[in-house]
């Protein structure tokens, strides 16, 4: 019973070790030299048998051994090209990035095996080449995704200008490649009907959605850095709406992916049967989308008109214990609106208060008091009073 999963894990580990050792420079050189010698000997053999170029080329494409030797050289060249591109755009990879990349490649390959069984009629050398190209481009999307996520973790002022240039160029290159290849796949499907190419159409549409997500996230983080630089750099007040923008970005991406998957799913279901290879992805995307929509609805209903719904706490209500239990800071009642005698001095102060997090103490229906901002970020996750959230689902009442 357990033999199959164990065997799969062992195969996976061996493959990953082989890939890792293949990627190290020394072995890559050895492998390249051997591949080149093999391909050259195949060409030399064909040349010796057929004096003219055309017959030699025909012989090369007909004999399985020569095709294999040439394909192997092609694989080697792709590997080197990939390494060069990776060095240009990402520099050395961190071990966690390498591990995640191999994990993703592995998942993708195993799921693609299922797709190959659906499209076994389309399985020919051009199909394999297209698949290689897809995997190549996908790997760069994955690496870029890791880097954009990493960028958000870098403390102010964020990564240097070299990072931004490389990410910008990658957005352009990958975006154009995705769009060109998606239009190719769509044109092919429209012309020849639903075949193996539809697999690539689906993949490139998903890649475009992923890239759009990365561009939006990158813009959000860049805006956050710019915003901080205008407000005192390191000590700038945090941008309160950032999490909301990231949330909407993810929601949009999930929606686009779900749409693409459903279209693909229906296309395959009506022409070829159940598309086993994307069931996991469809399920994960649908679940994530539903969760996000539910969170959004809950959050919107909980934070609607917060300022009007929850009254400001007065100094008397605050009493002796002024600590907000969410942030453990003291709370101070909002200063009574000043007499408009000195509007010139009042204006900048009011502006500053609006700019940073809103720290006005707010009273919940149950009488508990928290900072406006603390309450809002709490309500993003839970729709209950922070003091009694275990016991009551709605504001202790
Ligand atoms: Zn607080
Ligand atoms: Zn309460």
UniProtKB/TrEMBL annotation:
Catalytic activity, reaction form: S-ubiquitinyl-[E2 ubiquitin-conjugating enzyme]-L-cysteine + [acceptor protein]-L-lysine = [E2 ubiquitin-conjugating enzyme]-L-cysteine + N(6)-ubiquitinyl-[acceptor protein]-L-lysine
Pathway: Protein modification; protein ubiquitination
EC number per UniProt: 2.3.2.27
Entry's transmembrane regions: 28-47, 53-81, 101-119, 125-144, 165-184, 204-225, 245-269
Region forming the signal peptide: none
CDD domains: RING-H2_synoviolin
Domain RING-type span(s) in chain numbering: 324-386
Top-level taxon in the UniProt lineage: Eukaryota
Pfam families for the chain: TPR_SYVN1_N (PF25563), zf-rbx1 (PF12678)
Coiled-coil spans in chain: none
Annotated membrane topology: Multi-pass membrane protein
Top EC class, one word: transferase
One GO molecular-function entry: zinc ion binding
A GO BP entry: proteasome-mediated ubiquitin-dependent protein catabolic process
Cellular compartments annotated: Endoplasmic reticulum membrane
Keywords on record: Endoplasmic reticulum, Membrane, Metal-binding, Transferase, Transmembrane, Transmembrane helix, Ubl conjugation pathway, Zinc, Zinc-finger
Main location: endoplasmic reticulum
GO cellular component: endoplasmic reticulum membrane
Family: Belongs to the HRD1 family.
Protein's UniProt name: RING-type E3 ubiquitin transferase
Species: Dacryopinax primogenitus (strain DJM 731)
Organism placement in taxonomy: Eukaryota, Fungi, Dikarya, Basidiomycota, Agaricomycotina
